[in-house]
Amino acid sequence: MSNLDLINKTILFVKEQLANAEGGHDWFHIQRVYKNALLIARGENCDETVVKLGALLHDIADSKFHAGDETVGPKVARKFLESEGVSETIISHVIQIIDNISFKGGKTEKTFSSIELDIVQDADRLDAIGAIGIARAFNYGGFKNRAMYDPQIAPNLHMSKEEYKKSQAPTINHFYEKLLLLKDKMNTQTGKEIAEQRHQYMQGFLAQFYAEWDGEL
Ligand code: ADP
Ligand code: NI
């Protein structure tokens, strides 16, 4: 099977898998990450097939929606790639990407590194910042029935992963706890440049938000 056929089949498979996914991790998230990843890949010496498969399969079964089981996604991805006759070298690389990509990796020990993982991770992080990142954050906060903002509740920069998951903090706090920290975690030069611009956009948004909140505009 040609590479193009494999990628097209993977796209169909992922669309089907994510047919009922929630807004933050739907097919359009995957499509944006895929495009970001291709853009970043152009500036790097990498295996594009691995980048494409990694981007397409990285959220195939997000653990938040599978009772915390982080092994579902990699298993589903492996089964699919095996059924398409993909080589074990590529399969195991893609699985490593899925296993290591999440922001969670920020705190847990990273056990694997490759330029392809760096690229897909940057591409995923870019989708959490900028205009799309703002929209996703408020979408997620609404889904969890959280306040947008509460001046009495300060951001908490020292939560464990478990505390963070349980936290009912307002969505604005998420910017300080996570989103504004992402630009300094970017791996690639292209990723850093795009993140810088999106970071500034978020800061502008926050300044405007507080001004409107205070009736200063
Ligand atoms: P990823 O897909 O990169 O692993 P997550 O699953 O943690 O990211 O989050 C998906 C989206 O939901 C991201 O845009 C993220 O910013 C947003 N999100 C996650 N947790 C919160 C929260 N506590 N408040 C607001 N938005 C959140
Ligand atoms: Ni993602």
TrEMBL record:
It comes from the Bacteria. Transmembrane segments: none annotated. SMART domains: HDc. PANTHER family: HD_PDEASE DOMAIN-CONTAINING PROTEIN, SUPERFAMILY HYDROLASE, PUTATIVE (AFU_ORTHOLOGUE AFUA_1G03035)-RELATED. InterPro entries: HD/PDEase_dom, HD_domain. This is HD domain-containing protein. Residues 26-129 form the HD domain. Coiled coil: none annotated. CDD domains: HDc. SUPFAM superfamilies: HD-domain/PDEase-like.
